Each structure stands twice: as structure tokens, then as C-alpha cells.
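Milestone M4 deliverable, item 7.
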Amino acid sequence: MQMRTITLLFIFVFLSFSLSGCYYFAAKNEIKEAEKYLAELKAAGGEKNAPYEYCSAESYLYGAKLEFDHNDYKVAKGFASQSKSASKSGLEIVKKK
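Output delivered:
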């Protein structure tokens, strides 16, 4: 009985660590992509031609990095995704002008 409990506890701990690791790498990759798109938007003149999208992307990226530093990887990934989306929208606006 005790061995079974210890085994189940070990499996639970192992699964929780592996799942949290997945969020860690997913958030880290999403933040890198968001940084890349924001740099592209800045180079294309997004600060002047798409100021709302640029500020949104910058703010979401800041929030993503902040949440990542506080080990909240799921929220960080969401903010980074929003940042990437805002940067892409800004790039579309800049290309139209």
C-alpha cells in the first residue's frame, strides 16, 4: 500500500515538472518570435506609421517578459502571442502605406 502511494506521488511530481517545462520552452520561443516581429516593425517605421500596433506590441512583450520572470509561463506565452499579433498587424499597415 505504501509503495503504491509513493509510486503515484512520484509519477504526479514527474508529470507536473514535465508539463511546466513545456510551458517554459513554449513561452521562451514565443517571446523570441515576438521580439523578432517587433524589431521588424520598428525597422519598417512602425513607430510613426502604426503607432497603436507598435505600442500594443511593445506593451504586451514587456508584460510577457515580466510574467516569464515571475515563472508564470502560460500567461507569458499568451502575452507574447498578443505582441506578435499586434506586430504583424502593424507590419500589414506599414506595407499598405
